[in-house]
Amino acid sequence: MADEIRGEARGTAPVPLSILDLAPVGTGYTAAEALATTAAAARLAEELGYHRFWVAEHHSMPGIASTTPAVLLANLAAHTGRIRLGSGGVMLPNHAPLVVAEQFGTLEALAPGRVDLGLGRAPGTDQGTALALRQSAERLHVDDFPRQVAELSGFLDGDWPEGHPYERIHAVPGPVQRRADGGVGEHHRPPLWLLGSSDYSARLAAELGLPFAFAHHFSADNTVPALRIYKQNFRPSAVLDEPYALIGVTAFAAPTAEEARRAVASLGLSMLKLRTGRPGLVPSPEEAEAWPYTPQERNFVDAWLSNVVHGTPEEVRDGLDALVKRTGADELMITSTVHGREARLASYRLIAEEYGITPAASSG
């Protein structure tokens, strides 16, 4: 399993490069079109040599169609043949661990050896929507994420201590598949990852000896401290003998710096609306240019965009290389929630070409 977690950088990339896609829905196109673009992006990522392609769980956000990772990943598995697919992540407190185990057991059966299961503890939405998901005000405040992770691991492994209440319960499909003739066929469990934007999951991932994915793209100030905590406190496990940390980073490349600046401006406006309780479709560059920003809004957008790596392919490469050097990350996962299908796909291609990565990097 460690080989499936650890990527191999090809070309001149300092670490493996992967993609996080949120199926963004922008002004002028539909969720169906956004999901089709995500499928096209997964095929392109495989063609270009990216290592992983992950999607993430969000709810009640008009500009994000990635609400059900397991369903979306099943579609992506049908459109690809080599690249690793996964969740970045499933928000485990929103679900029964048995349900998640069966969903990802099914995905593993559909795409053997290609599935990652990243777990987060946040709701992936606002508190009102979280209540609708969890059906209990108590469940909004009780933090039993470590128990849920342990329970999910038990279902994935099919291995419970004697006398455990769940010892006779099996996730189906599960880690071992029995054939009609009574024989046992091999079935692989997807590797678990813990996701976070603070030191909580960093500490838990270190304690459990799991790979860790940090959301640098919306918690940049916490990246270095969280990765330091993870690596200093890591305990070797059956999964990993050494820590492995991935960071998500917003990056966008275009033929010119001006084209890139104009494209990411829509990201800034989208984030402004989200942080001020007005989530909507991803605005077009024209909408971003015409927005009547107050001085406070302009300061917020400028500060947020300062952590977005954008520009020409060479400038993006320089920025990503500097980020790896500063953080010590073992893998970069690029997200580019810009408006428009062609701009996003072109950026993935430009970055891959700048680094000279190859399809061999996506073979897992």
TrEMBL record:
InterPro entries with a match to the protein in the record: Bact_Lucif_Oxidored, CmoO-like, Luciferase-like_dom, Luciferase-like_sf
Molecular function terms from GO: oxidoreductase activity, acting on paired donors, with incorporation or reduction of molecular oxygen
SUPFAM superfamilies found in the cross-reference section: Bacterial luciferase-like
Domain of life of the organism encoding this protein: Bacteria
A GO-annotated cellular component: cytosol
Luciferase-like domain ranges (all copies): 18-330
Similarity comment text for this entry: To bacterial alkanal monooxygenase alpha and beta chains.
This protein's name: Luciferase-like domain-containing protein
Organism this protein belongs to: Actinorhabdospora filicis
